Amino acid sequence: MKTAILTDSTAYIPKQIREQYNIHMIPLSVIFGSETYQEEVEITAEEFFAEMKQHQELPTTSQPPVGEFVELFEALSKEYDAVISIHLSSGISGTYNGALTAGTMVEGIKVYPFDSEISCMVQGFYALEAAELAEDGAEPEKIMERLNEMKRSMRAYFMVDDLTNLQRGGRLSGAQALIGSLLQVKPILHFVDKVIVPFEKIRTKKKALNRVYELFHEDASQEIPMRAVIIHANRPDEVEGIKRDLEQKYPHVEFMISYFGPVIGTHLGEGAIGLGWYKK
């Protein structure tokens, strides 16, 4: 059986890596006024943050229409018997449910939708691992089994510079945003039960990042092979330094750098930084 691996654009897997691993991608969109852009196709993260500065209103975002999923699954059916469709958390987007619905509407290919319950390159880790297994000829059920196993050690924490976007976009309650802005808090956020919630409230960015490093150390100190990613919203130089420091301390961990692209960047805002990892 030949299995395709598909994820959506919010995994923010760099294009060269998608091509290297033969990972297919379906884009979500970001909307400025009357202009709609498919992220990773028609607008880059850098272009998005520049565009944000030109607008007072927060952009909106949209998931791929079910019809786009159907078209893509039908195209894949010409070459593949099955597709594993890996998506951002169903608690913050209807993308996973779109894949689920489209999977019942196509013939000639079996669709295995997977809710990562997270987003960004941490979601991308599921796609990379699935692609490696598919390349080795693993059956789709075995790949799904491995993805569910990965969930048990998958962790991600992120810090935002400003809670305004999360609150305005409806991804965090107004009360939490108000408390944060009044106290100049830099909250550490994470996903619980598929939605974004505060993990801890910390007064400064430096202390917040140090707390995330402590959480990472709890797992990394076991010296089990791991994959980790540092994710940034338009802070490339800062995360290069973070990566160098962490690589020196944890040589058994494979580190990557990724970014918060337009759709997730809409909600987190510029300056957000995250760290995600799992045990290999």
Description of the molecule:
It comes from Bacillus weihaiensis. This is Fatty acid-binding protein DegV. Keywords: Lipid-binding. With 280 residues, this protein is an alpha/beta fold. It folds into two domains: 3-28 and 63-151, Rossmann fold, CATH 3.40.50; 155-279, 2-Layer Sandwich (Hypothetical Protein Tm841, Chain: A,domain 3). The chain has eleven helices and 13 strands. The chain has helices at 15-21, 45-52, 66-76, 95-103, 120-135, 140-151, 164-168, 174-182, 205-220, 236-249, 262-268, and strands at residues 3-8, 23-26, 29-32, 35-38, 60-62, 82-87, 110-115, 155-159, 186-192, 195-202, 226-232, 253-259, 273-279. Helix 1 links the parallel strand 1 and strand 2 (23-26). The longest helix has 16 residues, at 120-135. 44% of the residues are buried.
**In one word, what is the shape?**
globular
Biggest pleated-sheet summary: 6 strands, mixed
Number of strands: 13
In spatial order, strands of the major sheet run 10-9-8-13-11-12
Number of domains: 2
